[in-house]
Amino acid sequence: MTAPVPTGKPGPDDEHKLGPTRVRDLLAVAVVAALALWIVIRYNYGAFPSLPWLAGISLYAVAALEVVIGFVVRKRIADREIGSGSRQLHPINVARLVALAKASAILGAVAAGGWAGILVFLLQNLILDAARADRPGAIIGIVGGVLLAAAALWLEHCCRTPDDPMSDNADPAPDGSPTVA
């Protein structure tokens, strides 16, 4: 029996699989958010209150929490403490953490892009004192969004299963049949 030849097209089972979050997708989200917020702030800047310095600080707290959770999950997976026993990390909780990481990555991209769009507007208005005063808050928000996206990608990476050691030893022979070590 021969192995199926890969065609490069996703099969029926691969079509709905959840894959890792791609940085380019997050960058696209950030660019769209930046454009949208730049347009909104450009036409409505006078209607908004001034930006407080701590407006984006909650992003830092969530990012720090996700980094800590990532280290805990990574250690549990490395120590093979995954299962349904008491003192073990249940697999459904790992799946929930992956969902949290994916949502946080998108939120971080939206926040970073949105704050960047606001900052571009503020940098274009060099003569307004209010725009000058709002810049630090926008910079704090951008950094918080980037940190949240990075922490979310780290958490998602930590939730991966370890590589199967058997797959390294099962290299196919030149004729296509599997070899046994």
From TrEMBL:
UniProt cross-references to Pfam families, sorted A to Z: DUF3180 (PF11377)
Keywords: Membrane, Transmembrane, Transmembrane helix
TM region positions: 26-45, 51-73, 94-123, 135-155
Protein name per its UniProtKB record: Membrane protein
